[in-house]
Amino acid sequence: MRKFLFNRRPTRINLEEYRATLSRSEIARPENNFYHWLLGTGWGSFLLLVVLVYLGTNLLFAFAYLACGDSAITHAQPGSLLDVFFFSVQTMATIGYGRMTPVGNWPNAIVTFEAFFGIVYSALTTGLAFARFTRPTAGVRFSKVAVVGNHDGVKTFKFRVANDRSSHIVEAQLRLWLIAESMTSEGERYRRSVELQLHRSESPVFSLTWTAMHSVDENSALKEYLGNASVDQQWHLLITFTGYHESLANQVYARHVYLPRNVQQNATFVDIVSVLPDGGRVIDLTNFDKWIPSTSDQLVGEFL
Q1: Chain CA centroid to CA 40, Å
Q2: CA-CA to 33 of 20 to 30 Å: which in 6, 83, 226, 234?
Q3: What does the alpha-carbon distance between residue 121 and residue 132 come to, in Å, rounded to a whole number?
Q4: Is residue 179 within 8 Å of residue 236, measured between CB atoms?
Q5: Digitized pLDDT (tens) for each residue of the chain, 304 residues in all
Q6: How far apart are CA 165 and CA 208, in angstroms?
Q7: What is the CB neighbour count within 10 angstroms for residue 149?
Q8: Closest among 176, 167, 202 to 263, alpha carbons compared
Q9: Which residues contact residue 155 at a Cβ distance below 8 angstroms, ignoring those fewer than 6 apart?
Q10: Could you give the CA distance from residue 182 to residue 180 in angstroms, rounded to a whole number?
Q11: How far does Cα 29 stand from its chain's mean position?
């Protein structure tokens, strides 16, 4: 009995070709970069590009119809770019009012290609819009600035995180990294990444706000960069956020970068929690990014 095709022995694998396939870089391919740009850019830029491509291609097809002669499209004014442009729009959208029709082999060939292009373009834009809508986003907001001030008598680096959505993020995690350029003894520059320990890096349920803190003590790698004008300013702080979004039922991510100019020293955040006369508490996010200079004489002397 003849064996089925799926019972046949696999063909010999060329290991060198297999390794080359695995190690081949896909980063430099322009179509990959453009696709990720379409997914990551703002809605305004995305819709503007869709409209410009739509109008531009219709204009090109209109010039193609004009090149076919004055009698290529019935009921179109001879030499009228506007008439053939509207005919192109009707063709690409497969509307077909019936007033203007192509005459001849070349106009019908252009109509055939344009109808096919319209179907493909509609499918691509719909797929991209759907991918953008369904892509999970964290909805997490970071404070525009970070502050350095005293907390229980210890110099502390602080920044705020807020949940902009009404749903909860469970098992939320924050990580703080110092990214700085360093010089080896051989005179070679390299970029080092040092994780800075937070007072609390995890939260079982993240629903409102979170003030993350890092003690700038003797063991902190951040100590030599704060308030030291002689240190090269080629450094920044990277914050990564991960958590499981209840409404999206998916893992979400967010990140933020604080440059040296975004770190306010000898400062403290304005309180966003106010106590009502009946003992209740209200969170006012209008003060989320606001900070004031610290009034601690000890801290002022330390930074001055």
Answers
A1: 5
A2: 234
A3: 16
A4: yes
A5: 455 555 555 566 566 665 555 555 554 555 567 888 888 888 899 999 999 999 999 999 999 999 998 888 998 888 899 999 999 999 998 887 888 889 989 989 999 999 999 999 999 999 999 988 877 777 888 999 999 988 888 899 999 998 888 788 899 999 999 988 877 777 777 788 889 999 999 999 888 889 999 999 888 888 888 866 555 567 889 999 999 988 777 888 889 999 888 899 889 898 887 777 777 777 777 888 888 887 653 443 333 2
A6: 9
A7: 22
A8: 176
A9: 148, 149, 215, 216, 217, 299, 302
A10: 6
A11: 20
- Per the structure block, which two tokens stand in for 88? 């192109």
Residue 147 structure tokens: 């502050």
Q: Which two tokens stand for residue 149?
A: 């001030």
